[in-house]
Amino acid sequence: MNTFEEKYLAALDLGSAKIGFCVARIQEGDVHIVHYQELPSEGIQSSAIYIPMLTAKAVRRAVADAEKALMIKISGVIVGLPRNDIAQVTASATLQRKDPDEYVSPEEIQAIKKDALETYPLPDPEHQAIYGAIAQSFILEDGMQLTEKEIVGTLTSTIEGEFKVFVGRRQAVQSIEKIFKGTGIKVYKTYFLPEVMAKATLSKEELKGGVALVDIGAGVTSVAIYRGGIMRYYAAIPFGGRTVTGDIETECSLEEELAEKIKRRFGVCQPERLGPNSDKVLQIRITDPYRDIPVRYISEIITARYRELIDAVLFHIQESGLQNVLRGGIVLTGGAAEQNGLEVMFREISGYNVRKGYPKSHFTAPLGISVIRTSATAAVGMIIAACDEGVADCAGEQPEEKVVIPEPAPEVVAPSPLPAKPEVSETDVKPEEPVQAPAPDSGKKVGRKGGKKDKDDPQQGTLDLIWTTVGDTLLKFYDFMNKEDDQAIE
């Protein structure tokens, strides 16, 4: 890229309470954020679109405002995937290298990771989609286990990659496509948000030493735990800041909008920290007779709900098995992380070091753009990740090809289970009879469309990955889906 070449990247964060739209100008790898706006979201619940028509209106307004402010035409966007209803599956994929006498290259490892994301055999491809596949480690033919950086430059005939595969609902991804249909705007890239938010909020020391990134949104709270620079564990808690607002609305018989304003203006975690406001009373004059609501009572409601949230977060940290190696402690981000007193309450209950996570100094922005806020971390994280990966110009001509949703694959017989510890309770796992895994030279290749790959076809992968998984019994969370109601959106 020469000095005068530039491109724009546009990221859309579809939250339960707000839509965040961020546009950045990229020049020679430098990220300069030129627009950020938050609008009330519609048709979104628990971070997933459930009324696409309403969501489409809000998104079109956000895009139109950006185009007017910047005097550009936005042709493509980067969108974050839902964070709720995610199954975390442990699996491995084995690659037979064509030339074992050559050093393992970074490009080869990236190709393995890309192929893993595209070829993992889903048990129910009509209703499931892969949101992310993160390599945990790589094993050489002699059994040596190395990280992604360490394996480059080694000599081996086979590489076995250990992956965390994150599987979500296909309909949620199709809904994202639906809201842009007929607008002339394409979805260039989708991101599993917990993976990219770390780029915006966490330091290298935190990522390496161990840290829990807790994203508290309006409808969902997610817990992503990092160790050695890799995301090792993920879980979603199906409530957030909006649930706290709902408690105030119910207990005080208020409208949701007024309850939210009172929470933001007067709400504090832990009543003992109210100080001079402890004895104050709010007089609500929208009814006759007037109603008095003590500020302390509001604080008690907020504290009770956030105590439940903290307990749930600590439970998942314990479940990860990494509770004793989080040298970076806990980092709180997301819009609801700005609740007064929440950071202190988290620290006192958990015993960890706790701080708020704001977008870090990977970019520049003019003073008039308020992007240094916890609610902007998802949008900024997508911009940084898209810049690193060379995503196409979002204000230029549309690319000829894009892959957002993997094509449904026919049913695949999973090989024998891993000896690794399953991610679900023993009562959910049905016993399976051993199945002989296909030999590397058998010609049976698991691809996105199943069957044998044509290596001369540029649209198909060139890697021969042999998958070993724990089977579809780990995806029991799909039992909650009513297949009569879970029809794909046309």
Write the layout of secondary structure elements.
Layout (H helix, E strand, L loop, with lengths): L6 E8 L3 E10 L2 E11 L3 E2 L2 E2 L2 H19 L5 E5 L6 E10 L9 H14 L8 E12 L5 E2 L1 H4 L6 E12 H10 L6 E6 L1 H9 L2 H6 L1 E6 L4 E7 L2 E8 L3 H12 L3 H11 L14 E4 L6 E4 H26 L9 E4 L8 H9 L3 E3 L20 H13 L75 E5 L21
Parallel strand pairs: 1-6, 6-11, 12-17, 17-18
Antiparallel strand pairs: 1-2, 2-3, 4-5, 7-10, 7-19, 8-9, 8-10, 12-13, 13-14, 15-16
Helix pairs in contact: 1-4, 5-11, 7-8, 7-9, 9-10
What does the model show?
By secondary structure, the chain is of the alpha+beta class. The protein folds into three domains: 7-84 and 173-194 and 360-389, ATPase, nucleotide binding domain (Nucleotidyltransferase, domain 5); 88-163 and 409-480, no CATH class; 209-357, 2-Layer Sandwich (Nucleotidyltransferase, domain 5), CATH 3.30.420.40. The chain is 27% helix and 25% strand. It contains eleven helices and 19 strands. The protein has helices at 52-70, 106-119, 148-151, 170-179, 193-201, 204-209, 241-252, 256-266, 295-320, 342-350, 377-389, and strands at residues 7-14, 18-27, 30-40, 44-45, 48-49, 76-80, 87-96, 128-139, 145-146, 158-169, 186-191, 211-216, 221-227, 230-237, 281-284, 291-294, 330-333, 354-356, 465-469. The strands form five sheets. The chain has a five-stranded mixed β-sheet, with helices on both faces. A five-stranded antiparallel β-sheet has the order 9-8-10-7-19. Helix 7 runs antiparallel to helix 9 and helix 9 crosses helix 10. The radius of gyration is 24 Å and the shape is globular. The two termini are 40 Å apart.
